[in-house]
């Protein structure tokens, strides 16, 4: 970005005429008057948001963060990674074409989403480069890691139709073709009826029947649920490998967890921002990056007072004196008794 260059040229002798209006370009107008850039700029600097910053500070923060992150991590995030993440997101909406159509209806474009994805990947890079992941973290995550099985299903409304489909499958019919022909679960049709068997995701009847299947096996009776009748196939049984075999998946899972931790995200971005030599010329916008300029302080254990140590040493001496007094009293009592 070389906006400063454009600004310098605009105010040079070459384009002096365009700088004659000190109020800036016109932004909007009505019968009541005109709104110019300077008026809008001043209003944005003074109008507070619900978060406490002004709209101007909020917008400046966004611009600076985008520039800083891009400058720091543009070599680490490729267009191929962005495209792959976009396609993965699109799968949840029935593919790229359907996803882009939905975005258009919402007034967005694929490029808008890809830019958001790119920024998210920049933040991920910041976390990976500025957060220590210990072997203990990896081991703990591995211990909790569960590999989900993959199942496929055909959902129909009538039990007799479900039984007929089972018969066709037993005779060698292709499961994916029958999904396309009969299944009323439109969300899984394009994937051949496949979906991960995540614990707690499905109604109990479905999950219980699916867990009883061996890999490649199909339910021989329709599984009834509140949605209709299911024919379920175990496509692939989940099996956890060794720590080294699963390390990449485990570390990815840990990073995803870090991305959900706002304090960790804030700390990683703060380190990047503080190395970027941020200079804000307009004092009225000076608070834009304030939240990233102070690292969280670590509380140190309080030092013990020397006086307190002396008092502690003196206390046993008082007990000794008391003990001696008790001994003398005891001896006097003994003499009286004699």
From TrEMBL:
The keyword Cell membrane applies. Residues 1-22 form the signal peptide. Its EC number is 5.2.1.8. GO terms for cellular component: plasma membrane. The keyword Membrane applies. It catalyses: [protein]-peptidylproline (omega=180) = [protein]-peptidylproline (omega=0). Residues 297-338 have a biased composition (Acidic residues). Keywords: Cell membrane, Isomerase, Lipoprotein, Membrane, Palmitate, Rotamase, Signal. It is a lipid-anchor. Its main location: membrane. Residues 146-236 form the PpiC domain. Pfam families: Rotamase. One of its GO terms (biological process) is protein folding. Residues 293-338 are annotated as: Disordered. It comes from the Bacteria. It is found in: Cell membrane. GO terms for molecular function: peptidyl-prolyl cis-trans isomerase activity. InterPro entries: Foldase_PrsA, PPIase_dom_sf, PPIase_PpiC, PrsA_foldase, Trigger_fact/SurA_dom_sf. Belongs to the PrsA family. PANTHER family: FOLDASE PROTEIN PRSA, PEPTIDYLPROLYL ISOMERASE. Plays a major role in protein secretion by helping the post-translocational extracellular folding of several secreted proteins. This is Foldase protein PrsA. It comes from Alkalibacterium putridalgicola.
